[in-house]
């Protein structure tokens, strides 16, 4: 069982990663795929509730999923959406990308190939990747307004019910730690726009790294 201090630190990262955007109707919903199929369900539900007329799934096999699945993430996520009632004709699939930057870039290229030019986007991602997804989208496609959302779960509920069964809560915390590090590193590498990280959040990150939650750090 996670001790109280680790739980407190992880909650700080979880809260920081959320953008807390209010939903607005858009021209397209872009689901950034991963190991978490709850994100597919969130994207499909947004479409079915009328938030946008086009549903795009972007994702091939990433660092985590290539050891879990052989089917591209986007194909799996799209099948979930169809099973929920989304018409196939309203779905686009980009299944070659391997990271968040490619998710956005390859989607941009796919839409151009199809002669489509949505003006506004809702990006759907895991709860603890909202901020990094926003920062990446704004870097790759700055002229397009975007809001970011995710499955609407508390940290405790997410850990207990909605993580991939092959990933433990400790794995998820380690991934969150890695995502925060990337928010710090990636702007200078040209991958994201800068995001302010409060001192207390960075201190929590460093304490978690020192506690061993360092398995998903990028090379500095």
TrEMBL record:
Gene3D superfamilies: HUPs. Coiled coil: none annotated. Residues 27-143 form the DUF218 domain. InterPro entries: Cell_Envelope_Assoc (IPR051599), DUF218 (IPR003848), Rossmann-like_a/b/a_fold (IPR014729). This is DUF218 domain-containing protein. One of its GO terms (cellular component) is plasma membrane.
